C-alpha cells in the first residue's frame, strides 16, 4: 500500500493527451467510488490503452454508436460497457473531443473500503483478488452502466473520482500485448502494469470463439 497518496483530483488536462501517454501514467493513481454504504478507494496497478478509430481492438474502431458515444469525449469521463452478457468493465476517456480513445482499468489494490468490496466479491480468496481483472474491479466497486458518462475529473462529490495518488517510476512499469485482443489489434503492446504487483491479472491471449453448427 502507498503510505500517503496525493488526494488532489487529476485535472482534465491530464486526460486531454494521447492515450498511450495517459495509460501508463494512470498507474499508481487513486480511483474513489462513493456509495451510500461508504467509499471504496483503489490504487490502479494495471491498465490497457484503446485508440479508437486507429485501433482494431477498440469499441470505437468503426465509429460512434449508442454504446460507445462517451468515448468521443470530453476527456476525463467514465465509459462503462457490458460484456459476455454478465460483466461490466470501466474505462477512462482521454484525448481530444470527437477523437475516441479510452483506458481500460484492468486491476487495482483496494486501499480503503475493503470490507464493502468483499461483500461484492464473495468468490475472492484474499484481498489481492478483489479487483484483479477488469470485471472484478467493476464488481468490487459496484460499477454498472448507470455510471456511464460520469465526470471523474472533479473536486465535487461524485460517484467516481480519480485522484493524483503516487505516480509509478517508469522503470517499474512493464508493457505487453493486451489481454484477449485478437486480429490486427493483438500485436499492440498497450497493456501496462506495475512490475511484481500481486494484484495484476494474468495475461491471456485471445481465443477465437467457435461458431455453433
Automatic annotation (TrEMBL):
<dbReference type="InterPro" id="IPR036995">
    <property type="entry name" value="MPG_sf"/>
</dbReference>
<dbReference type="InterPro" id="IPR003180">
    <property type="entry name" value="MPG"/>
</dbReference>
<keyword id="KW-0227">DNA damage</keyword>
<comment type="similarity">
    <text>Belongs to the DNA glycosylase MPG family.</text>
</comment>
<keyword id="KW-0378">Hydrolase</keyword>
<dbReference type="Pfam" id="PF02245">
    <property type="entry name" value="Pur_DNA_glyco"/>
</dbReference>
<protein>
    <recommendedName>
        <fullName>Putative 3-methyladenine DNA glycosylase</fullName>
        <ecNumber>3.2.2.-</ecNumber>
    </recommendedName>
</protein>
<keyword id="KW-0234">DNA repair</keyword>
<dbReference type="InterPro" id="IPR011034">
    <property type="entry name" value="Formyl_transferase-like_C_sf"/>
</dbReference>
Amino acid at each position: 500500500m502507498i503510505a500517503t497518496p496525493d488526494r488532489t483530483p487529476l485535472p482534465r488536462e491530464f486526460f486531454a493527451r494521447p492515450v498511450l501517454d495517459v495509460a501508463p501514467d494512470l498507474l499508481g493513481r487513486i480511483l474513489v467510488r462513493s456509495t451510500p454504504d461508504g467509499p471504496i478507494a483503489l490504487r490502479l496497478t494495471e491498465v490497457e490503452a484503446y485508440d479508437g478509430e486507429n485501433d482494431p481492438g477498440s469499441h470505437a474502431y468503426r465509429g460512434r454508436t449508442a454504446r460507445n458515444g462517451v468515448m468521443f469525449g470530453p476527456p476525463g469521463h467514465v465509459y462503462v460497457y457490458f460484456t459476455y452478457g454478465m460483466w461490466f468493465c470501466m474505462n477512462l476517456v482521454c484525448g481530444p473531443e470527437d477523437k475516441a480513445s479510452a483506458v481500460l482499468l484492468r486491476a487495482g489494490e483496494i486501499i480503503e473500503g475493503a470490507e464493502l468490496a468483499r461483500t461484492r466479491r464473495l468468490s475472492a480468496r484474499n484481498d489481492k483478488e478483489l479487483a484483479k481483472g477488469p470485471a472484478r474491479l467493476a464488481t468490487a466497486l459496484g460499477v454498472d452502466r448507470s455510471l456511464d458518462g460520469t465526470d471523474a475529473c472533479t473536486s465535487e462529490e461524485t460517484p467516481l473520482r480519480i485522484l493524483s495518488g503516487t505516480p509509478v517510476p517508469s522503470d517499474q512499469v512493464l508493457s505487453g500485448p493486451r489481454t484477449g485482443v485478437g486480429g490486427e489489434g493483438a500485436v499492440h503492446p498497450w497493456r501496462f502494469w506495475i512490475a511484481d504487483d500481486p494484484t495484476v491479472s494474468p495475461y491471456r491471449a485471445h481465443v477465437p470463439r467457435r461458431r455453433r453448427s
